[in-house]
From TrEMBL:
Region forming the signal peptide: 1-20
GO biological process: one example: regulation of cellular pH
GO function terms (MF aspect): ATPase activator activity
Membrane topology, as annotated: Single-pass membrane protein
Principal location class: membrane
One Gene Ontology cellular component annotation held by this UniProt entry: proton-transporting V-type ATPase complex
Protein name: V-type proton ATPase subunit S1
Amino acid sequence: MAFSRLVLSFALLCVASSLASVSVPVMLWGDLAGPSMKSNPLGEVSQSEFEDILNNELKDDQFTVVFIDESLSVEDFSRKNSEGKTSFPYLKSNIAEALYLPAVDNVLEVFHKYSDSNADHVTLTENGLSAEIEKENVKYLFINLRDAREGESRADMLLRHNDFMEAMVSKLQEQYDKVAAIYTGEFPSWTIPESHLRTRRATPGLFYSTALNGLRFYAKDIIITSKAGEFNLTGLSGGTTNFNETIMQATLNFSNGSLILNFESKSGYWFLDSITYNGEELTTNSEVYAILGFSYRCGQNAVFSKLNDTEQTTVIFRDLKVQPFFKETNSSDTPQFGDSFNCVGFFSVPIWSGLFVTFVMLAITFYGIMMMLDIRTMDRFDDPKGKTITINAVE
């Protein structure tokens, strides 16, 4: 059981340390061998330097307990709770004889060398320690602090860890002659992202735009869905058009296929009736049309599909804009898109909802005004010395 806990804890330490190279603060106190050195707040202790410090401070073979928090930064040591009290009163009481390193690189990598048969690994959870602490042949005790509670502030959690470390060190000092304690974290709790003056070049978006004879076409993406799967048409290399005053067929050639757009002009409008893909004619439930001289624009998906006996083939145009001219446009001055005829329409659902609410409010206001105008006030009063006023039912 103890061996399985050792292997599992060592694997977790390896994974955590391999994910990122981070710097965290480290505090050592207790029965340290070497003289206390002053910390350098402006420098970072490397992995090799920290290993030398441990070898120097722990050379007397004292029992060492290592408390590993999930996250820890220098700012946590100055954190205060809602009552204005520090979260580490026990650590601050030992600061005079402690060794404090504000930034140590790859702390867990150094601790891996101490994760041998003389080490025991336990975890502090909400229900207490995950296992009993082994006393025989144990020189190093690693305690992972994993007891965060829902709704608890970080200052209160760190205060609980402070009290737990004080109780654990006091308990170990009753069992061993010399005890050294180390407090650190896996990751920093405060991170400041680096900013670079050189910005990364933006990757051009995938889109299709072409100007054929008698046609302007643009689409952000073209997706083909069939029994074989789903893929994008890529590498638009141009195409051909065949048209007269009422009919146009435009062939778009791609590196992995081709599409034929079938246009028709009638009654002052043009229509994209269907498209042809792999010999199959695909139609759409929503009409794609516009006034002659106008372009069709749809920010939503324009879907053309056909369901046969064996499979359904679907072609999806994303952010489509197209306009057939039904005349020769092969000249040095390529015609531009005309005014857009949008697929959403002039009155969308939010606009209709707003108009409906406005009309209801106007109706209520108008009815209230009419009711107020219909109120009749008294304009005749009784004279005590004269004849009594008689008011009939009509009045």
